[in-house]
Amino acid sequence: MTGLPFKLGVHPINWVGEDVKEHGADTTYEQILDDIAALGLAGTEMGRKYPTDIPVLKEELAKRGIQLVSQWKSVLFSDPAYRDEELAAYRKHAQFLQEMGSTVISTAEVGGSLHFDPRRTPNEKEVLRLDEAGWQSLAEGLNLAGAIAQEYGLKLTYHHHGGTVIESPEEIDKLMAMTDPVLVHLLFDTGHAYYGGADPLTVLRKHYNRIAYIHLKDIRQAVLDEARAENVDFVTCIRKGVFTVPGDGCLDFGPIFQELLERKYEGWAMLEGEQDPATHPAYEYAQNALHYIQSLISQERR
């Protein structure tokens, strides 16, 4: 990929689902890493199929010239009762990522979420939004975790995410206002921004100075409309195929790339399209996305 000032990688979630375990269940980590190398990309996030033994993981990545950029970290900071154990787990996570040479920690609050909150029961139907005490506790916890990340030379990048308590543009704005900009950065996700009701370009422009990591994800509008009409939950939306890679959905990435190029963004950006690889082959879709992005870059350079 030519003409990009930033580093482009791809998320293994395109090959193996994280939220929908049956997606790519039989795919090996060797296949994923071989595909990433064949795509000419040099960055990946940690995936659930990857080796957890650090020397083995380092060897597998190094022989293909791939960098581990980040790994998702769920946190439960909105409930103060969990803070100490959550911060201890965050430190352990930071230690692992530092050892792997990563620079950012993808971080998301799971309190109130229908699918990720360990306190929820299976028969519940909606995300429980935060009260003011919950907001305050979340902000304090994130600032503390951000300080831990800094100790290890990392940045906490908050991942606004569908099906969680930080998904709407108003929630993103509030979280950014309540947290320390030195300690808490933003993981800007185009697909989750749109899913949460925001215009991705507006989020990018408003919070650019906080953005330290990017996920490039597209949305299938017809699937989103159907899911909204049926009032289905987030994981069901994934099963329906609401997400895809850039160039295959309804989002216009032209202005987004124009903004990133003009501002000379230098961090990592990951191609991401969480969907069933049996129907939407990960390598093929990533390759198509790269061609689409290259065409956008070429247009900008004219």
Explain what this protein looks like in three dimensions.
This protein has 302 residues and is of the alpha/beta class. It contains eleven helices and eleven strands. The chain has helices spanning 29-38, 54-62, 83-99, 132-151, 169-178, 190-195, 200-206, 221-230, 234-240, 254-262, 282-301, and strands at residues 7-10, 43-45, 67-70, 73-75, 104-109, 155-159, 184-189, 211-216, 218-219, 243-244, 268-271. The strands form three sheets. The protein has a seven-stranded parallel β-sheet with strand order 1-11-8-7-6-5-4. Strands 2-3 form a two-stranded parallel sheet. Helix 5 (169-178) links the parallel strand 6 and strand 7. The model has no long low-confidence stretch (mean pLDDT 96). Pfam families: AP_endonuc_2.
Q: How are the strands ordered across the major sheet? A: 1-11-8-7-6-5-4
Number of strands: 11
- Span of the ends, CA to CA: 17 Å
Low-confidence regions: none
Q: What is the helix tally?
A: 11
Q: What Rg, in angstroms, do the CA atoms define?
A: 18 Å
Classification by helices and strands = alpha/beta
Q: Main beta sheet, described?
A: 7 strands, parallel
% residues in beta strands? 5-15%
Q: What helical percentage do the residues reach? A: 40-55%
Q: How do the SSEs run, as a string of H and E?
A: EHEHEEHEHEHEHHEEHHEHEH
Mean pLDDT over the residues? 96
* C-alpha geometry: globular
Protein name: Inosose dehydratase
Domain Xylose isomerase-like TIM barrel: 34-287
InterPro entries: IolE/MocC, IolE/XylAMocC-like, Xyl_isomerase-like_sf, Xyl_isomerase-like_TIM-brl
